[in-house]
Amino acid sequence: MTPQLALTLIAVFAQVAVAGSTLALPYITHRDLLFGVPVPQGFRSTEVGQRALRVYRTSIAVPAVAGLLGILLFHNPWFNLVAMMVTAVACVLAFVTQNRTLKPYAVQLPRVHRTTLIPDEPLPWFVWLGLLPLAVLAGAAAYLHEHWDQIPLRYPVHFDINGTPNRWAQRTFSGVYGPLIFGSELTLLLFGFALAGWYGSRRSEPMRKPMVIVMLAVELTIAVAFGQVPLESTGFVHLPILWLAFGPLLLIVPAMWYAIHESNKPREPLDPTPNECWKGGIIYYNPNDAALFVQRRDGVGFTVNMANRWSWALYGSLLLVIASGLFVLH
C-alpha cells in the first residue's frame, strides 16, 4: 500500500467517523431528550419530531458527502481537514437550530438549587489505573535513555503525503523526550478530569462510572500514541501507518460503546437542570446549581456547569497544557 493511498483511507475513515457520529447523536442521547430539549414521551414519533430529525440529517449529510467526494478526488491533506471541520460545524449549527425549533414543546424539569456532592460510595478502585499511562510513558523514556547512543543525531518526525520526510528532529532532550513529556501532561490532566467528574457530579448520577472508564481509556490511548512516536521516529520500532492511525481506537471504541449502552438503560428521570440555563442545548450555566458536572443534553456523559468557578480552573489547566506543547514539542 502506498503512503498516499494509506493517507486517503485515513481521511475517508475520519470523514465517515465524524459524519456517522454526528448523525447518530440524536439516537444515542437519552430518549427523553431531542436536540437538547426535554420532550414528552413519544414526541420523537410525532410529525414535529420526525421533521426535526429529517432536517438535521439533511443538514449534515450534504456537506459530509460533498467532503467525502472531495477527499477522494483531490487527495489534499488541507482539504481533508477542512472537510471534517465543515461537517463538524454543520452538526453544531443544525443541532442549535433544531434546539430552538423544539423549545416551545419542552417539558420543564424540577429546578435545582443546591445539591450534595459527596459521593455515596468510595472512589472505584479502577480509577487508580489512570496512573498506568504514566508508567507506559516512563517506560518509553527509560528505554530511550538506555539506548541514547543508538538514536540518530537527526531523524524524521513528519512526512508528506508521498511518505517523504519534511520535518526533522535532533537528538536533544526536547527532541527525544518532548512527546513523552507532553503526553504525560495530557494524561495527568485527564486523570484530574476523571476525579473531578466523580466528585463534582451528583451522587445519584448512574453515568459516573462509565464516564470514568471512558476517561481512563482516552488516557491510555494518549499514552500509547505519544509513547510510540519517539520510538517510531528514532527507528526502534516500525509500525504501519494504518496502525498508528487506527490502533489507539481499539481502546476508545469499546469504552464509548459501554458508555452509550449504560446511558440508554432504563433509569431515573433526566438530570433536573432548568431549560433556561441551557444555551443551544450544549452550554449549561446555572449559578444556583452546585454541581460542577451535569448530564449533557447533546450526547452521552457530562458537561461542565460554566457558572461554577472550578470550571474555569479546568479549562485554564487545559489551555496551559496545550500552550506547553509549543515549548516541549518544538
Give the structure's gist in a few sentences.
The chain is built from 9 helices and 8 strands. It has helices at residues 3-28, 47-74, 77-102, 132-146, 173-200, 208-233, 241-246, 249-263, 309-328, and strands spanning 33-34, 37-38, 154-159, 165-170, 278-279, 283-284, 293-295, 302-304. Strands 1-2 form a two-stranded antiparallel ribbon. A two-stranded antiparallel ribbon has the order 3-4. A two-stranded antiparallel ribbon has the order 5-6.
Number of domains: 2
Q: How much helix is in the residues?
A: 55-70%
Structural class: mainly alpha
The poorly predicted ranges are none
Helices and strands, in N-to-C order?
Answer: HEEHHHEEHHHHEEEEH
The overall pLDDT average reads 85
Going across the major beta sheet, what is the strand order? 1-2
The number of distinct β-strands equals 8
Distance from N terminus to C terminus (CA atoms, Å) equals 31 Å
Q: Strand count, sense and closure of the main sheet?
A: 2 strands, antiparallel
Radius of gyration: 22 Å
**Global geometry:** globular
In terms of DSSP E residues, the strand content is 5-15%
Number of helices: 9
Describe the overall structure.
It is a single chain. The chain is mostly helical and 330 residues long. It folds into 2 domains: 107 residues, no CATH class; 222 residues, no CATH class. The chain is built from 9 helices and 8 strands. Helix 1 packs antiparallel against helix 2 and helix 4 packs antiparallel against helix 5. It is globular. The model has no long low-confidence stretch (mean pLDDT 85).
